[in-house]
C-alpha cells in the first residue's frame, strides 16, 4: 500500500485568511515532503521532514509554515498568501530520506 | 548541479502502438537513481518505474520499460500497447544515491489517440 492522502482537495482563500493543508500516510514512512507545482511545470521542493524534524527548507517565504506533529502527519499552515501562491500543493513520503518518494493527490489552492 | 532534460514537450501515440519518451541528464556522480513519474489530469503523481544506476539491466514494469544508457546519460521510457489511460504528463527525475532531492525534467505531455 503506497497511499498518501491529502485534505482538502480544493481550497480557496483570501489574502488575509489563515488555512492549513493536511497530509497523512500510514506506511510507516519517516520522511515527508511538501512540493509546490504550477500548471504544466514540474514540482518544486519546499520542505523536507525526517523523523519529524525539519531537514530541508528551500528558502520558502515565512507565510508558509510546515509542521510535523507525528510520523504519520504533515501540515502546511498558510497565512497572508499572495495570488501567485495559487498552485497545486503535493505531499510525498518515503521510507527514509534518500528512498523512493510516493506522492499524494495534492491540494489545489486558489488565493484571491 | 544535476540537470534533467526532456526535449519533447508533447508526444502523440495511437492506441495500441508503442511510444518512447526521451530523457537525458547531467551528473558527475556514479551512483544515483532515475525515475519516471506519470501525472494524469487528476494531478496525482504516480511512480511508473525506477532504475538504479549501478544496475545494467533495464527496469521493466508491465507495458513500461526503460532504455538506460549510463555512458550517454540517457534514460528513455518505452510504453508498449498504449492505452487511453496512459495519457498524462510524464516527468523524468534524478536523485543522487544518498540525496534527499528529486531533480525533475520539464515534463512531456503524452496524448493517446483512439
Could you give a quick summary of the protein structure above?
With 112 residues, chain A is mainly beta. Helix content of chain A is 0%, strand content 57%.
Task: Describe the fold and architecture.
The complex is a heterodimer of chains A (112) and B (114). Chain A is mainly beta and 112 residues long. Chain A is built from no helices and eleven strands. Chain A starts with a strand and ends with a strand. Chain B is mainly β and 114 residues long. Chain B is built from no helices and twelve strands.
Our estimate of the beta-strand percent of chain A is: over 45%
Shape of chain B: globular
Class based on secondary structure composition and strand pairing of chain B? mainly beta
Largest sheet of chain B: 6 strands, mixed
Instruction: Please state the average pLDDT score of chain A.
Output: 94
User: How do the SSEs of chain A run, as a string of H and E?
Assistant: EEEEEEEEEEE
* Tally of individual helices of chain A: 0
Structural class of chain A comes to mainly beta
Low-pLDDT residue spans of chain A: none
Q: What does the radius of gyration of chain A come to? A: 13 Å
**Order of secondary-structure elements of chain B:** EEEEEEEEEEEE
What attributes does this structure have?
heterodimer; A: 112 residues; mainly beta; 7-stranded mixed beta sheet; 11 strands; B: 114 residues; 4-stranded antiparallel beta sheet
Note the topology.
The complex is a heterodimer of chains A (112) and B (114).
Chain A lengths: L3 E4 L2 E4 L4 E8 L5 E7 L6 E7 L2 E5 L6 E7 L2 E7 L7 E8 L7 E2 L3 E5 L1
Chain B lengths: L2 E3 L4 E5 L4 E3 L2 E3 L5 E8 L6 E7 L7 E2 L2 E6 L4 E6 L8 E9 L6 E2 L3 E6 L1
Parallel strand pairs in B: 2-12
Antiparallel strand pairs in B: 1-4, 3-9, 5-6, 5-10, 7-8, 8-9, 10-11, 10-12
Amino acid at each position: 500500500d503506497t497511499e498518501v492522502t491529502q485534505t482538502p482537495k480544493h481550497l480557496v482563500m483570501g489574502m488575509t485568511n489563515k488555512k492549513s493543508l493536511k497530509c497523512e500516510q500510514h506506511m510507516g514512512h519517516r520522511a515527508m515532503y511538501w512540493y509546490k507545482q504550477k500548471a504544466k511545470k514540474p514540482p518544486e521542493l519546499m520542505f523536507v521532514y525526517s523523523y519529524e524534524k525539519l531537514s530541508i527548507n528551500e528558502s520558502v517565504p515565512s507565510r508558509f509554515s510546515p509542521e510535523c506533529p507525528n510520523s504519520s502527519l504533515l501540515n502546511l499552515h498558510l497565512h497572508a498568501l499572495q495570488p501567485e501562491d495559487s498552485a497545486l500543493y503535493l505531499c510525498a513520503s518515503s521510507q527514509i530520506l534518500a528512498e523512493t518518494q510516493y506522492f499524494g493527490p495534492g491540494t489545489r489552492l486558489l488565493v484571491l | 548541479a544535476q540537470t534533467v532534460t526532456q526535449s519533447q514537450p508533447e508526444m502523440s501515440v495511437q492506441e495500441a502502438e508503442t511510444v518512447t519518451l526521451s530523457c537525458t541528464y547531467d551528473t558527475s556522480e556514479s551512483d544515483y537513481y532515475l525515475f519516471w513519474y506519470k501525472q494524469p489530469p487528476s494531478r496525482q503523481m504516480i511512480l511508473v518505474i525506477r532504475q538504479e544506476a549501478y544496475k545494467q539491466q533495464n527496469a521493466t514494469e508491465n507495458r513500461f520499460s526503460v532504455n538506460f544508457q549510463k555512458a550517454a546519460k540517457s534514460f528513455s521510457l518505452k510504453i508498449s500497447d498504449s492505452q487511453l489511460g496512459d495519457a498524462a504528463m510524464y516527468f523524468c527525475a534524478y536523485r543522487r544515491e544518498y540525496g534527499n532531492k528529486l531533480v525533475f525534467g520539464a515534463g512531456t505531455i503524452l496524448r493517446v489517440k483512439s
